[in-house]
Amino acid sequence: MNDNIVALPSEEKFQARIDAEEKIEPKDWMPEKYRQNLIRQISQHAHSEVIGEQPEGNWITRAPTLERKAILLAKVQDEAGHGLYLYSAAETLGITREEMIDRLHKGISKYASIFNYPSLTWADIGAIGWLVDSAAIVNQVSLQNTSYGPYARAMVRICKEESFHQRQGYNIMMVLMQGSEEQRAMAQDSLNRWWWPALMMFGPHDGESAHSAQSMKWKIKRRSNDDLRQQYVDQAVQQAHAIGLEIPDPDLKWNEDRGHYDFGEIDWDEFERVISGDGLCNRQRIAHHIKAHEDGAWVREAMAAYDSKRRARATDVA
Amino acid sequence: MSDNAHIAKYVLRLADDALVLGHRLSEWTSRAPFLEEDLALTNVALDFVGRARMYYQYAAELTGGGATEDTFAYTRDAREFSNLLLCELPRGDFAFSVVRQFLYDAFALPFLRELKGSSDQRLAGIAAKAEKESTYHLRRGKEWVLRLGDGTTESHQRMRQALDELWGYTHELFEVDALEEALIAEGIAVDPRTIRDEWQQTVTSVLIQATLPVPESSWSVQGGRTGYHTESLGYLLAELQFMQRAYPGLRW
Description:
The complex is a heterodimer of chains A (318) and B (252).
Chain A lengths: L8 H11 L12 H20 L1 H5 L8 H26 L5 H9 L16 H22 L5 H29 L3 H20 L11 H6 L7 H18 L10 E3 L4 E3 L5 H11 L3 H14 L1 H21 L1
Antiparallel strand pairs in A: 1-2
Chain B lengths: L2 H24 L8 H29 L5 H7 L9 H4 L5 H22 L5 H29 L3 H14 L11 H8 L10 H14 L22 H9 L1 H5 L6
Helix pairs in contact in B: 1-2, 2-3, 2-6, 5-6, 5-7, 5-9
């Protein structure tokens, strides 16, 4: 942190509560920076769920079987539901959903950069479910113990559903790998494209993460980016190998001493480029969201008008 | 045609209605006016896809020869699809989708209630499950028609326009051909003519409450049950069937 926070007695008390693993609740006193940090993180998380509907929704109308279509609809519906819980959790911190959406549209608030990559083939629905959702689970399981109560409780609920999503995604990949040569190539191509972006989901190395140190102190974050990424690699590599997929990393190797996989360096230039706007879908994702929001403006206005008419009529009768 | 083939043909009509309407509903995912409605529309789409699957699975059993639910959904062309035209029209704006859904659900609910009494046990079972969903769909639809009809000038105008564009497709809901006549006589199929008054009453009372005029136009377009469709169906199928057409005969 650049600012020197003068430790006021209330801040000391706050930190003592955090250190004692007490949950902070909406009406409790909290430092303004804690509040802002949480608003940033939870709204970004909510936006990610909602923007994530797009690459997956892209295959609802083209799902290869009716069963897959029904599962995908259910999954995307869950994601939208996660967005709702998370917006509600953020609203307990004194910001409205409308303000959060406005920040998203203005580019002030971000969403997971992985959704700036396109879903081009059916296998991508498998890869997103398997790789992206399991990266989200690894992160979210650690957030079940986050210090802010409403966020922690939202995570508990979300994690249950995500593990179902992850299994479904992996199942899509498994069936493809048991299929024709073309299907196996489709699965491998998809893994090749999603592997590195999935590793990037855990964010920069610990030393370079803008918000990490303070977030760890406040126990908003419970485990470091690199720690979580390592856990993820260890599990994903085994899952990939179990169905005959190859991880697109020549430096990947089991390290006996560490008891973990060593893996290659992430292309951080690409990471920065895609976050800053050079991904294949950055503009489309936001434009899609803005269009839906603007197309819906007359509907929201009509609802408000109808509600006030109804209230007025109820008053007249009374 | 054997009895089973007749019943299968009837079941496919109901299946195609559900699949095609479910497809149009699913096009709203990530495009709804706000997040709660996104969730609700996706959920209703899922109900219709689920309903389609139950009907197709039954049609597959009646047909035999290795047919599955996907055979019907993915390998028939527009001329073999027998859905109502109302279900296939492009989703339009939110008012159009709301009105289409309301007109359809006001029909589906009494239809399913009757189908529950079918002498065909499988159809009766599917209807019992679907009826619960349709009760909720119709309740949702009524609320939306009221809000948008009696909302702002713009929403009222959009609802009127949607009603005008859709009204002529509602007559087809109540048409009966020789196949259905025969199955009605056997107590298997529902006679939609017997629920027309109820439909008319539901629709009229909600429209009046929503300050919307009941359309008086006399045009009527029909053909869905005989595979005579609007041009939009071909594009819907091209999208829906893309994978099975591009990669035939594989497991997914």
